[in-house]
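TASK: fixed-backbone design
INPUT:
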């Protein structure tokens, strides 16, 4: 599974020849002027060399389709005896117990693509089952602190950062409005009193009179009414004040532990994380109960709840189909036409 932030331009990449020998998923992510092809795969234990060759073929085909994208391949390859390293003169090398091990085939194929294996964290048995192949230099793996799943003897969660040439540009959702409660009404009245309204309404066309009136009124409002910034909350609607405060404390404790690495800081962070989870569940249950009560008396709360539950509103800025990207309205319409073209009728056929 690969999850991406909603502000990043990403899409699922289709495989021309899907296989049932192993599980994989690929996502293309665009960040500013850079592209990243992220792949996640799982190879069953004791798989034959043909399964690994099939995986290598898929990766090679994707490299040809997206030659400008950086490759980041992550997954459980189940190559239990393989020991990976990198030599400046040769590139990626691997040592195995058998000369015909699939790891040699993977190493040979990925070396040709300019990839190296950068995960340096073995599992509890000292083996490297989870591998990270990439063509991005200076990627370093770290032990994950906040895991989605519990670690076990075979797999330990790790994290890594992908360096970017340019900082990510975030789209601001801030809204600037007039704060009418602080409007200087006295100055606004004086401003409007100095207007020659007979001259303003001298136009024959009523629309011109309305436009002139609106322009003067809006000018007065902009001169004597301060603006205020409305910044949408990053927290869900059901977060209480105490839960928000606790979340900030948890983030501070997390940053403190990453700086020091002390066990005491980790225990503090772990305690706050558990408290956040407990109160989050409590707040969400209370929110659902309040919503259910309102639904009985006011059906509008159903649509309000439905709108708040949506992750994204409106239409995306860009759409994709068959490796074609479009952003303008005309291109989008043409792409929809291409998608539904198989149900079109030929123009020379009679319409019943």
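OUTPUT:
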């Amino acid at each position: 599974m690969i999850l991406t932030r909603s502000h990043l331009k990403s899409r699922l990449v289709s495989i021309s020849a899907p296989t049932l020998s192993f599980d994989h998923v690929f996502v293309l992510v665009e960040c500013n002027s850079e592209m990243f092809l992220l792949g996640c795969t799982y190879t069953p234990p004791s798989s034959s060399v043909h399964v690994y060759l099939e995986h290598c073929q898929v990766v090679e085909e994707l490299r040809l389709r997206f030659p400008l994208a950086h490759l980041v391949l992550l997954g459980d390859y189940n190559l239990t005896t393989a020991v990976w390293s990198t030599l400046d003169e040769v590139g990626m090398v691997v040592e195995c117990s058998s000369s015909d091990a699939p790891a040699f085939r993977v190493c040979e194929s990925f070396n040709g693509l300019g990839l190296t294996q950068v995960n340096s964290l073995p599992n509890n048995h000292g083996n490297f089952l989870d591998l990270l192949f990439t063509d991005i230099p200076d990627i370093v793996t770290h032990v994950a602190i906040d895991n989605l799943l519990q670690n076990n003897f075979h797999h330990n969660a790790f994290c890594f950062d992908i360096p970017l040439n340019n900082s990510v540009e975030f789209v601001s959702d801030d809204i600037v409005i007039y704060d009418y409660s602080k409007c200087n009404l006295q100055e606004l009245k004086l401003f409007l009193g100095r207007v020659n309204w007979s001259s303003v309404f001298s136009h024959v066309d009523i629309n011109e009179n309305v436009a002139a009136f609106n322009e003067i009124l809006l000018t007065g409002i902009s001169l004597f009414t301060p603006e205020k910034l409305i910044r949408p909350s990053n927290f869900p609607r059901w977060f209480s004040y105490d839960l928000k405060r606790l979340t900030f404390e948890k983030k501070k404790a997390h940053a403190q532990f990453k700086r020091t690495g002390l066990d005491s800081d980790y225990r503090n962070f772990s305690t706050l994380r558990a408290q956040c989870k407990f109160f989050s569940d409590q707040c969400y249950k209370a929110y659902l109960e309040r919503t259910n009560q309102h639904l009985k008396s006011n059906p509008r709360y159903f649509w309000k709840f439905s709108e708040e539950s949506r992750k994204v509103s409106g239409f995306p800025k860009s759409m994709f189909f068959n490796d074609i990207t479009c952003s303008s309205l005309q291109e989008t319409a043409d792409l929809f036409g291409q998608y539904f073209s198989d149900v079109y009728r030929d123009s020379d056929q009679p319409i019943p």
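COMMENT: The longest strand covers residues 23-31.
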